[in-house]
Amino acid sequence: MSVFTLLFHAVNAQVQNVYWIQFNSKSSNLFLPKESFLSPKAIERRQKQNIEIVENDYPVYAPYKQAVAQVADSIIHTLKWFNAITIVLSDTNKMPQIRNMSFVKKIQKLDVYPVAEKKENSKLDFSLKAIEETEVRTEYGESFNQTEMLHLDRLHSMGYRGKDMFIAVLDNGFVNVDTIKGFQQLFSENRVVYKHNYVNRNDSVFGSGTHGTSVLSCIAGNLPNVFVGTATQATFALFITENNQSETILEEYNWAEAAEKADSLGVDITTTSLGYNNFDGGFASHTYFDMTGSKAVMTQAANIAFSKGILVVNSAGNEGTNSWKFITAPADGKDVLTIGAVDKNGKIANFSSRGPNASGAIKPDVCAQGANVAVLDFRGLPFLSNGTSFSGPIIAGAAACLWQSDSTLSAAELKKIIIESSNYYTNPNNDYGYGIPNFYKAWLSTTTKKALVNSEVISTVFPNPFSRYCTLFIKTSQKGEAGISIADISGKVVFKTAIPVFENDVQLLEIKESELLSAGSYYLKIEVNGSKKTHRIIKTDL
Fold it and tell me: pLDDT value at position 127?
C-alpha cells in the first residue's frame, strides 16, 4: 500500500512551470551612472583591485521585465549578471507571446518538483553534542583548538579581528541571532547592516533556520572565555537562500541573486555552507560531470562574484561517506576557495567531500577543523558539531583578519596567499587540497614583501596577552639599531636590550626574559633612529 501511495503521488504531482528568460541586451541601462546601481563600497572595491565596470554590472532593463510580467504569473528572480529573469507561467499557451518578443534571447524551462512539507533540509544535517565542562585555557574557551590550528590567535593578538571587513553569509536562516548573547555586540555596534530572505521574498531572517545561526557563530560569536569566533569585529550581511521545505534548482538562483546583491553592497567576502547536486524528484539534478568548475548556475555566479573582487568561500560538502563522495556546486568553482574539514589533530574528516572537480582541479582548496568543532546553537550555547558547514566560515573569518592587515591585497592575491601558507602546498591531494592554512605565515609573507619608507617602523607583539614569554616582530625602513625595553606601569624599566636591524628586513625576537615577569600590564618600547613605537603587553598567570 505504501508503495502504491508513493507512486500515485508522483504521477499526480504538478510540476511548477518555472522558466528562465534571458534578454539580448541591456538597452539604455548601459548609460546609467555607476552610482545608481553600485554602492560606494562596491565601487571602492573595484577601484582598489583595478576591476573595470562591465556590461554584466548594469541592471536588467526594466521595460523588458515589465513586458514579460504582463504575460507571466510572477517574476521570481532578476539576475543582472546573466541579463535574465525567472518567471512562473501556469498557462503555457501564453509562452509564444514571450518567445516572440524581439528582446528575448533564450527561454529555458526549469524543472522544479512541487514543494512538500518536510523537516529542515537534509542537506544541512548537522549534529550537536553538549560540551563537557573543561578548564578554560584562553579567551577562546571551547573554540581554542579551531583557532590555534590556523595560527590565527597570533593575528588576533596583533589586533586583527576583521574590523572594517564586510562579510556576507548565505544560508538557511539565522534563528535567534538578534537575541542571543553571543551576538549581542553585533547589534549594539550596528554591524548587521543588511538582511534579506530570498526564499520568502522579505527581510525576515531571524525566525527560522538553526544552521545559519551556528555558521555565523564560527565567525561572529563572542562569549569571552567560552567561545570566540574568527572575526568578531567584522560587519555582516545576512541572506537566506536555502529553502528548508524543499530542494530544487531555484535555490541556486536564490544564491545567485543574493550574491549579486552582496556585490552591489560592497561585501569583501561571501561564505556559504550550502552545496547542490541532487534535487527533489530528480528534477534538474546534477551529475559529477557537471562539476566542471563553471557549469552549474550557482558556480557561474560564484566565479563572477570573484571577478568582482570578492573572496568567495564555500564549504566542500559532507558527501565523503556517501555514494556521491565528491564536492558539490558551487564548491567545484574554479575561483571558489573551497574548504574541507579535519579533526582536532588535523586529520581529514571522513565525511568531508573529496576532489577533484570534473575538470581535474584540486579540490578542496584548504581545510580547517570541522569534526567535533565548537559552535553556538540556536540558544546561544556552545556545542560540538560536525560538518564542512563550519570549517568554511572559520576560514572566511580568518581571511577577513588577514585582509584587514593588508587592505591593498586583491581577492585573487588573498586567495593565493592563503593557499601558499598551507601545509600541503607543495604536495596537494584531493582529500586535504593544499592543506591547513597558517595565517601567521600568510601574514608574514604579506608583511615581508612590503617596502617601508620615511623611517617607518612596523612592529607587533604576540601572543598578547601571554602566559610564558612574548615574541617581538619588527621591520624597519632603515639600517641601524633597535633599542627595546619593557617597563612596568610605574615606568620602571625591567628589561632592556638592543638588536641590529636592516633596511626592509624582518626581525623576530623571542623575549625569553619576559617569562620572569610577574602577572600584570607592561609597556614594550622600540626605538630605531629616532622613530618610536610602544605596545601595551599583558602577562598572565600560567
Answer: 58
Read off the pLDDT of residues 196-253 as tens digits, 9 standing for 90 and up. Answer: 999 999 999 999 999 999 999 999 999 999 999 999 999 999 999 999 999 999 999 9
The partner residues of 373 in beta bridges, in order of sequence, read: 385
**Residue 172 in contact with residue 242, Cβ under 8 Å?**
yes
Q: To which H or E segment does residue 314 belong?
A: strand 311-315
- Per DSSP, 475 falls in state E
Secondary structure letter of residue 196 according to DSSP? E
pLDDT per position as a tens digit, 452-503: 666 678 888 888 888 889 989 888 888 889 999 999 999 999 999 999 988 8
| Number of domains within the chain | 3
Beta strands in 317-405 (DSSP E): 337-342, 366-369, 373-376, 382-385
Asked whether residue 355 falls in the same domain as residue 319, the answer is: yes
Q: How far is CA 289 from CA 85, 108, 333, 356, in A?
A: 26, 21, 13, 11
Residue 492 CB contacts under 8 Å (≥ 6 apart), including other chains: none
CA–CA separation, 319 and 352 (whole Å): 6
Burial of 308 (0-12, 13-18, 19+ CB in 10 A): buried
CATH at residue 69? 3.30.70
